[in-house]
Amino acid sequence: MTACFAVIFTSTRTEGDNGYAAAAQRMAELVREQPGFLGVESVRGADGHGITVSYWQSEAAILAWRDHPEHRLIQARGRSQWYSAFHTRVCRVEREYAFGQ
């Protein structure tokens, strides 16, 4: 996967689920249907800190996902309920290296 874009989303969760798991599952399903989506990697520690990196063919595809109506609703719930802090970065992937798998 080279010459693509990555969206790096780091976050800190609030206490309790409050519907988060169901919403995260729905977003995982919905994002896979989006034109230009290439894949995602995500981890969250026991302390609530997490990082999700999604990969995209273009900046236009990223903006379309950002502005998707259902995703917009979930973003608002994230700000009001699920995250005490988050940070989003958009980067161009120039090359990659791998070992195994």
TrEMBL record:
Keywords: Monooxygenase, Oxidoreductase. Signal peptide: none annotated. GO terms for molecular function: monooxygenase activity. Residues 4-90 form the ABM domain. InterPro entries: ABM_dom, Dimeric_a/b-barrel, Jasmonate_Hydroxylase-like. It comes from the Bacteria. It holds the Pfam family ABM. Gene3D superfamilies: 3.30.70.100. The keyword ATP-binding does not apply. This is Antibiotic biosynthesis monooxygenase. It comes from Pseudomonas hamedanensis. The lineage of its organism: Bacteria, Pseudomonadati, Pseudomonadota, Gammaproteobacteria, Pseudomonadales.
